[in-house]
Amino acid sequence: MNAIVLVVDDEPDVETLFRQQFRPEVRQGLYTLDFALSGKAALEKLAGCVGREIILLVSDINMPGMSGLELLPAVKAQYPRLPVFMLSAYGDSATVAAALERGASKFMTKPVDFPQLKQDVSAALSDATRAG
Amino acid sequence: MDGNAQHATRTTWVDMFSVLRTTGKGQILRRLMPILPAVIGLLVMGLFAYLGLNALDRVSRQAQLIVDRNLQNTVRISEISARARELNGDFYRLATLRAANVDGLDVNGDLARIGSQVDQLVADLRAFRDERASASQAGAITQAIEQLGSYRQALEFVGSMLDLDFASAVTFIRPFNSLFDNLTTLLQGMTDTTVADARQLSKEAGASTQEIGRWFVLIAIGVAAAVAIFGWLAGKRQERFLFSTMVLEREVAERTADLQTAKLEAESAYHALKAAQTKLIQVEKMASLGQLTAGIAHEIKNPLNFVNNFSDLSVDLLDELHQAVGPDMIELTPDVRAEVDDLTATLKSNLEKIAQHGRRADNIVKNMLLHSRSGASEHRAIDLNATVQEALGLAFHGARAGKPGFNVTMQTELDPNAGMVDLYPQEFTRVILNLVGNGFYAASQRAEQTAEPGFEPTLRTTTRDLGDRVEIRVRDNGAGIPLDLRNKIFDPFFTTKPAGEGTGLGLSLSHDIVVKQHGGDLSVDSQIDCFTEFVVTLPREMASDRNPA
């Protein structure tokens, strides 16, 4: 089984950062990372994941075009069981509440606490394995 | 309507006053006004007195004249009467002497003398009649004069007959005896009449005098009454003048007072407005600056995250690299190995510096974002003293942890009546931490720099109950804030601390929290080389419509 974590962020350097941060996990073959630069791209990737399983979606909120908070309900409508983590620079209560209300499993503020994220990803992976 | 009428009357009085005041003539007239009736009264009295005296004088003179004349008449009549009697007596004596044939008698001469005396008497009577006698007297006198004329003729006749028949001549003259008796009676009566006349005249004069006196008294009373009435009217008018003056003065005083009050109110309102405006400008400035900095902060935050993340990551990668190449390092020459070790160490140190300064920048950005945060924590009623105490402990331990050897004497005076206050606990604690932190910094900074022996860095915190408000004072005995900086300390990014020690956002943020979030007030008082005191005033109950942040 090829578990994929899809990261959505309009910043291209996020990919570099995440790849470097998750290098040990990827090397160990626990899961792979995929990246989308917009909400629309993310939905396309989700739709086209034949033979691969995306076990977790990690999305930024503040993005041009479709924002994370718009992407979230769209994803949840199509893939209700897919856990979604939201990332944002704005950790205010209104944003957090909005994200959780629309079905986000977790809310994380930037800068990302990678050790914490790694733990949460592992937990999501084990959930997916159990369910699968 | 009433107001208008009153006003009109007032205006008239005012006009009169102004006219009286402004013209010189009016000035004199105004001064004379009160004594004018008295002067006129005196003049009238004087005139009447003069006229009365004059009349009296005239009457008394007339009376005197009458009395004098009557007296003279009486004397004259008496004299004439006496002469007439004497004349008759002379004749009879002559007749007697003649009858006795006394020698040496000049009968003719005596008769002539008697005759001339009669003439004289007639002349005198005539003169009296013409000059002094009254009409009734004049008739009697005329009659007497006529009879005397007859007597004269009789005398002449007797004279011519004397040598012939004196006796019969005397008989002839005898009827004239009654003439003299009558004349005497007449004259006596006339004397009496003139006396009576004089009396009557005197009485009339007296009556006339009395009448004049009465008139004078009546007129005097009238004049006095007129003067009194006039004086009363004048007084009344004067009183009205005085009264209206008083009313005017009082009204002027009232209006002045009203104006004064209005002026003071306007001034205080103006000052309040000015203060509010200043505050508003400050708030507005801060708000716009807050939005601007928030915008900048957001834009900076993401790249800054990358800087921080990548630098952290690179440190780890460098360690990994070290581990990876570690076994192969032995193969290198000691020089190269030393070079590689040195370079990787420097690289690591640089990355750590990047991470360190990145965190510093991140700290600034975080504080900047706090200015524009929305939907913060909930406000609730908390125990003010407990919260302040908690914040003080936190600040003190934080400062001690951050700076070994830190020591500032803490004084706290917490008003037991401070009680519960409705506020945002997190933000309020942040404010206290901030103010206390600044106080610690100022006091310990002075302790480090001053040469004063026995200087004890002290921070005093007091709470005070102000009824519907509470007050928190944080006072340090540091170097103080120069006057020209006091307006700037609440500006974002303003700091007097050396680069890297302060973000310049602490007081700006505290101001935001106290003023904008809590509807309170944050002010500062300071004296160079003495103290700095921040005063936070918070409403006990927060306005219900207040937006959080």
Topology:
The complex is a heterodimer of chains A (132) and B (549).
Chain A: E1 3-8, H1 13-21, H2 23-28, E2 32-36, H3 39-47, E3 53-60, H4 68-78, E4 84-88, H5 93-101, E5 106-109, H6 114-131
Chain B: H1 2-22, H2 24-32, H3 36-99, H4 107-131, H5 135-161, H6 166-173, H7 176-325, H8 334-372, E1 380-383, H9 384-402, E2 409-414, E3 420-423, H10 425-449, E4 458-465, E5 469-476, H11 483-486, H12 506-517, E6 521-527, E7 531-539
Parallel strand pairs in B: 2-4
Antiparallel strand pairs in B: 1-3, 4-5, 5-7, 6-7
Helix pairs in contact in B: 1-2, 3-4, 3-7, 4-5, 5-6, 5-7, 7-8, 9-10, 10-12
Explain this structure.
The complex is a heterodimer of chains A (132) and B (549). Chain A is an alpha/beta fold and 132 residues long. Chain A has one domain (3-131): Response regulator (Rossmann fold, 3-Layer(aba) Sandwich), CATH 3.40.50.2300. Chain A contains six helices and five strands. Chain A has helices spanning 13-21, 23-28, 39-47, 68-78, 93-101, 114-131; strands spanning 3-8, 32-36, 53-60, 84-88, 106-109. A five-stranded parallel beta sheet of chain A has the order 2-1-3-4-5, sandwiched between helices. In chain A, α5 (93-101) links the parallel β4 (84-88) and β5. In chain A, α3 (39-47) runs parallel beside α4. The longest helix of chain A is centred in the C-terminal third of the chain and has 18 residues, at 114-131. Chain A starts with a strand and ends with a helix. With 549 residues, chain B is of the alpha+beta class. Chain B has three domains: 68-223, Four Helix Bundle (Hemerythrin (Met), subunit A) (Up-down Bundle), CATH 1.20.120; 276-367; 377-539, Histidine kinase-like ATPase, C-terminal domain (Heat Shock Protein 90), CATH 3.30.565. Chain B contains twelve helices and seven strands. Chain B has helices at 2-22, 24-32, 36-99, 107-131, 135-161, 166-173, 176-325, 334-372, 384-402, 425-449, 483-486, 506-517, and strands spanning 380-383, 409-414, 420-423, 458-465, 469-476, 521-527, 531-539. In chain B, a hairpin with a 3-residue loop joins β4 and β5 (469-476). The chains are: A alpha/beta (132), B alpha+beta (549). The interface between A and B is medium-sized, with 13 and 16 residues.
